[in-house]
Amino acid sequence: MDSQEIEKLRAKRKRVKRMKTFIVTFITTWILVSILAICFLSFKVFSLQRQLNELSSKIDSQQSSALNYNDGDSDSAVLANYSASAEENLAQAGDTLKVYLTFDDGPSENSNAILDILDDYNVKATFFVVGREDEDSLAVYKRIVDEGHTIAMHSYSHSYSNLYSSLDAFKSDLERIQNLIYDATGVDCDLYRFPGGSSNQVSNADMTEYIKYLNDENIRYLDWNVASGDATSVAYSADDLVENVMTDVVKYKTSVVLMHDADNKDATVEALPKLIEQLQGIGAVILPVSEDTEMIQHVTIATENE
Fold this sequence. Notes:
This protein has 306 residues and is an alpha/beta fold. It folds into 2 domains: 1-67; 77-303, Alpha-Beta Barrel (TIM Barrel), CATH 3.20.20.370. 52% of the residues lie in helices and 13% in strands. The protein contains 9 helices and 10 strands. Strands 2, 3, 4, 7, 8 and 9 form a 6-stranded parallel sheet that branches. β3, α4 and β4 (150-153) form a beta-alpha-beta unit. The termini are far apart.
């Protein structure tokens, strides 16, 4: 074998060696990257699972708190949870469905638009208003009453931090909205909806304290069992809002529908005609809240001696 052939053989061996080295390096790197990726993904899965468990636990805790609220005053109060009353309220075949359309957070220009629609359909509703003392708002309060709807209180300030900071603050706020409604309409209002509802977890307050106060003052409070979804972070369309309501109202003999008439609730205004038509189409009776209305309440406190 001459020197030229020997050089070719050496060159070939070097190429084979480089190729082997490349293949081994590639496979080793791929294995290491795969191991690291598996470790990273396993950590993320574990982390997400932990967050999911924490969220699930929090939701369960909130639901338990809402349905089994205990004020610690065992000799004066017992609690009746909403799930029990909901069971009794389930609709059966042949039941005439009663539906109460309720609007929170007005007055606003949308309140007038909603009142126009209700007038077109000769339907009465219930407005849980907050405190506004400008001329237009005072006119809305009066229009609600003059057109046969029910006006009710939703606090003056709607500020959780102020409203639920103490019982005295709650009393002061309630007296302020009650006096404002009376001065504007002549109605001595005795119907209230807690901002956030009676089972709200946002306030971080013992809601039973405020519920007791309303009970002592003979002021009724009303929650809801059907939500349109117009106050959630989801940007529901008008059709979505109608579907949300219609999906649930058929479940109950008495439905209290939560909607809102603040300035930014244009989708609610747009949805209302179609909602009314669909409710009427299934034979539901649409009513304003009255003294005879069954109070849908998430948390109730009943005196043991009753």
